[in-house]
Amino acid sequence: MAAGTGDFGDIGGSTRTRLLRLLRDRGALSRAELADRLQVPRPRLLADLDALLQEELVQEAGPAASRGGRRSTLVTLAPSLRFAAVDLGATSINVEITDGRLEPVAAQAVTADIRSGPRAILQQVNEILSKFHAEGVYERLAAIGIGVPGPVSFRDGVPVSPPIMPGWDRFPVREILAREHGCPVVVDNDVNIMCVGERYGGVATSVDNLLFIKIGTGIGCGIQLGGEMYRGTDGSAGDIGHIQVDGHGPVCSCGNVGCLEALFGGAALARDATAAAKAGTSPALAERLRANGSVTARDVADGAAEGDVTCIRLIRDGGRRVGGVLAGLVSFINPSMIVIGGGLAGLGHILLAEIRSVVYHRSLPLATGNLPVVLSELGSRAGVVGAAVLASEVAYGQPS
């Protein structure tokens, strides 16, 4: 049986799961090292290894370095293992194919409108994956991880009443992708997969209590406590974009008034920047509006870098609002680190400095004395890295 064609749903046993995750994270290890690290009886380890060798999920990789006496044999993941990591944004689709150690072997990003509905978007995903298959990137996928920009029932694998995703409510994303590709599928919201990705391969690799804040078209928070994702009872934990910060503010996409993302999401920033350009209060934005017919968050960042006072004010106002919400979370959760990611993280250190200032000023010194507030190290790749991690978890028998 070729690697990738086994029944991954039957891996199950905790020793086998831990073994596969260890090989994923550490690379090739000897049988002796595996026994030492896993702390399991050697007969059980050898039985599980033999089963995984038969299923061609792992393979032998030559003799290990001598530790005295008979040399042990190295074991590594099968080189043909492949995972698909999919990060759906409001206006984009990012896909990576990784090997068993989550190293990328192929990637593609395309523009897309999440409002075009689930069938159209998933058709684009399937076309990308089919292209990779035709090019020989993979024979069969071991699992797929996918993040979507809205609330998700993690247990059921479906979006639930997502404000910016018309037509997606309760759409069976997991079921359809699993049937199409014949492999396990895990579905989560986009900020959760970014949080998983940043802790696995980014700036937060040694952090157990983490808040990852995505500031993009929407605003959300991924929460890891004790090294595990916290999703809440129904999967909606961290939906901070819909915390009210101004009772007289604009109407949000969720239907309520004055939500955080209605005041400083991507659409809100473009709205306020356009108004400033038309009013003539920002020469930098007015010039870009004349040249391009519209203004974007990137224009605000560029204007701020040029010293445009209005652009700087727009970023600081947004940072102050985000910081105010985060200060409450810091007092409540007492995290070890806050990571800022998403498209508007590109607004840079003006935004970061304002968020830090408010968090440090409004939260108790005991909670902020050792609290780094930093930008994402993975940037736009945080989502696909996290989706690949979740895919490997479900394939190896222990979804997070």
UniProtKB/TrEMBL annotation:
<dbReference type="InterPro" id="IPR043129">
    <property type="entry name" value="ATPase_NBD"/>
</dbReference>
<dbReference type="InterPro" id="IPR036390">
    <property type="entry name" value="WH_DNA-bd_sf"/>
</dbReference>
<dbReference type="GO" id="GO:0016301">
    <property type="term" value="F:kinase activity"/>
</dbReference>
<dbReference type="Pfam" id="PF00480">
    <property type="entry name" value="ROK"/>
</dbReference>
<protein>
    <submittedName>
        <fullName>Sugar kinase</fullName>
    </submittedName>
</protein>
<comment type="similarity">
    <text>Belongs to the ROK (NagC/XylR) family.</text>
</comment>
<keyword id="KW-0808">Transferase</keyword>
<keyword id="KW-0418">Kinase</keyword>
<dbReference type="InterPro" id="IPR036388">
    <property type="entry name" value="WH-like_DNA-bd_sf"/>
</dbReference>
<dbReference type="InterPro" id="IPR000600">
    <property type="entry name" value="ROK"/>
</dbReference>
<dbReference type="InterPro" id="IPR049874">
    <property type="entry name" value="ROK_cs"/>
</dbReference>
